[in-house]
Amino acid sequence: MTKNIFLLIVFLLLAFSPKAQQWIPLDEEKYLQQITQQIHNGKTDTVRLRHYLLLSEYWAQSDSLKSREALQQVIQSPAKHNLPEGMLAYYQGLYHAYAGQKAKAKEFYRHAIEALENDPQHADLLIRAWYDYAYLQIDEKGYDVLVKTLTDQCIPASKKNHNSTLLAYCYTQLGITFMSVGQFDKAEEYHQKALVELEKIPVQTVHLLTYFNLISNYCYKPDSQSAKIYLDKALAIIQQYPDSRQYPNYYYQEAMYYTTKQEYEQALLSLESGVKMAKEKKQVRLLHLLYFRKYNVYLMQQDYQKAKSQLEHILQEKVLSSETVNRRITYTQLANVNELLGDYKQAYHWMKMSSNLGDSIQQEKLLEKMNEYEIAYQTTEKQQKIDRLEQEKKEDELLAKNKNLRITILAIALGLSLVIAFLIFINYRKQQKLNRQISLSHQQDLLHLENQRKYEATRAILQGEEQERQRIAQDLHDSMGGMLANIRMSISSGDSQNPTDILRKIDKSIAEMRRVSRNLMPETLKNLGLETALRELCESMGQKNFSIQFESFNLSEDIPFQTQLMLYRITQEAISNVTRYAQAANVIVQISQNENLLSLTIEDDGIGFDPSTITYGLGLRNIENRGRLIGGTVDIVSARGQGTTINVECHV
């Protein structure tokens, strides 16, 4: 029971993922004074506006009003055009992200990325824009988009610019991403990479964030001894800055450590300290994460009444639960807690609320996707219009420059054109007649070849179906016939045989009938799709001395059923051929999809054959013909002693 609750708590804490970690300098008071001083005493408007943007970033997490006021100073300034366009767009995106306006934030981040991609002087802002934009897409696209952005964009760019601070930040954020999907060993690997980069730079906020992330990762594993090492490192840094807004986060990590040690009362004391400081610093979102951590501690203590009250408190303050996904998780946990308390009526109520909210989440995602498509469509139309106008402008300029030349050339060529036109007309009439004859002949040849190919494919399929009927008849006669005859003899003999034995024989007959039925039309293929059906087929056809390895990549769920069935039959036929002829020990079945191209490969390590001396049997012909029936190609590669590989490709 305790283990299950702990695993549930780990899932919940990962589900309530916080905003992207803010890395304001640790000496915040000094940093704020420096910004204010530059705003009032800056030598140029550009310097002052840049520091207004930094001020907006400073207040974004704790005071949205002050953040907006600082941002407006820049937007309303006539000198804002002196700033790089991408810089202003980035800080506007940052403000809207912390204000909970995701759609606007994503729009500004996209604008910032487009403007900064060709601005090497502000590569750091581009890296941060990439990361923040990907972070906002997690709800709709999953954590894959964040991993891809960090590995393909942020980390390579940080290395290229030799920016150890940003590189360490990207590594530890990639670690958090793997933590969020429960891959704690992988997360630790990237946190350790961040530590390597941190050794190259003076102690700053990114050190503290990395230590916090390592504490969380070790607590989730759980490994309290390792967590304590980095808890002490974090304390050594943050003690120097008693007014730091990172202190509530430290208490949060400290509470996690005590929870892992099952020292629940000490964990609650740490959380109370964190709550007090978060209230003072107006860190509302972090405050509610601390509340939720208290709920987890109560749950670990099995004090379900306090756990329930804590969740109700979170809902009442409407901060963490203002986001639909978090609210749904809170509803679900209220249902679970009420179930543990035996209040099934309330449990049903909250679970129904969670279910209804799930439907609204899907609707929101659909609307957001539609808006994205509309924006993309409008952008494409605008770009096409711009391209068309530019092309027209170039054409007009070209016409103006060459107008006199064209008139002269046209006058000279007019006479020749008439003669040439007459000759071309005569030649055209002859060529047109010849082309019609050639085209008609070519179409007839193509039609004949197509009919011949379809005839051969159909004949081969019919032969295969006849062979399949014979095999099924043989199966029914040898297995079902014998079993049923045995049962009939047992019943008609009238001896005192145990009824249980007869029932066992009947059950065995039913199982055999189901096996034959599955061979005719696998239920898994109809109900669960191609990937699951192929995996089950490989598992069922594997033998004691015969291993089948199945791999699948990026299969979509909208593959036409006829294509799924043909690929399933091709795989079935290929493995059957390997079993009968190849003398193989291992077979690899791999299927993958790249956009609309579907690829199937069956490879064995058997004795192989020489394609130039072997006449294909019915099995291989069936494979080729099934591939043609779905508009695909089949390539069979083999050599004596080197196994056989069958590659099938088709479009869906």
From TrEMBL:
Keywords linked to the UniProt accession: ATP-binding, Coiled coil, Kinase, Membrane, Nucleotide-binding, Phosphoprotein, Signal, TPR repeat, Transferase, Transmembrane, Transmembrane helix, Two-component regulatory system
Catalytic reactions of this protein: ATP + protein L-histidine = ADP + protein N-phospho-L-histidine
SMART domains reported for this sequence: TPR
Residue ranges that the Swiss-Prot or TrEMBL entry lists as coiled coil: 363-406
SUPFAM superfamilies: ATPase domain of HSP90 chaperone/DNA topoisomerase II/histidine kinase, TPR-like
Domain of life of the organism encoding this protein: Bacteria
Domain Histidine kinase: from-to ranges: 471-652
Enzyme class, spelled out: transferase
EC number(s) reported in the record: 2.7.13.3
Pfam families noted in UniProt: HATPase_c (PF02518), HisKA_3 (PF07730)
Entry's transmembrane regions: 407-428
Ranges of the TPR repeats in the UniProt entry: 168-201
Extent of the signal sequence: 1-22
Name of the molecule in the record: histidine kinase
